[in-house]
Amino acid sequence: MSIKTSNPCCEVQELVGSSLVARLLDIQGFLTANDKSVAWTKDLLCLWIDPNDMNELHLSGKSLHGPKGQDYIAVSYSWKHTPILKSSEAGRYRIIGTEGQIVRQSKVRDEALSRVIHYALRHEVFSFWIDQECTPQG
To answer: Sheet harboring 94-96: ordered strands across?
Structure first.
């Protein structure tokens, strides 16, 4: 049976001969389990914002099963220059390793990191994950 996607729901119901709810419940029977492992979370590194020096971002491990203090913000970062950001400069922020050593200057554009930091602080979440800083690139 071919049903035009532009047909209103009431017309679709007339064409299939049963209620829309009944059809949706039938479709639900075809779901397959999509069990995904969360083992990767044990190695998840986030950047922690030091309120005493917001130019230092500390890499730290996170657990998705920890207390509320383990909340973090995940950021999808555009690696290419985007016109919405006024500056393409990077390196203002220092990335501090898990052992307290300075690992490197930030790779993400300063303006993008500044926006993330201000958003995080506004929502009282002191950690964030951003792929270019938290995931080994190579």
So the answer is: 73-75, 127-130, 45-49, 56-61, 94-96, 102-105
Among 126, 114, 137, 123, which residue's Cα sits nearest to residue 55? 114
Q: Which helix (H) or strand (E) holds 118?
A: helix 110-122
pLDDT of residue 17: 66
Q: Where are the domains of the chain?
A: 1-35, 39-134
Please list the rounded mean pLDDT of every run of 10 residues in the chain (138 residues): 57 65 78 69 82 88 54 78 71 88 88 91 90 78
pLDDT at 66: 44
Beta carbons of 114 and 47 less than 8 angstroms apart? no
With 0-12 CB in 10 A as exposed, 13-18 as middle and 19+ as buried, what is 109?
A: buried
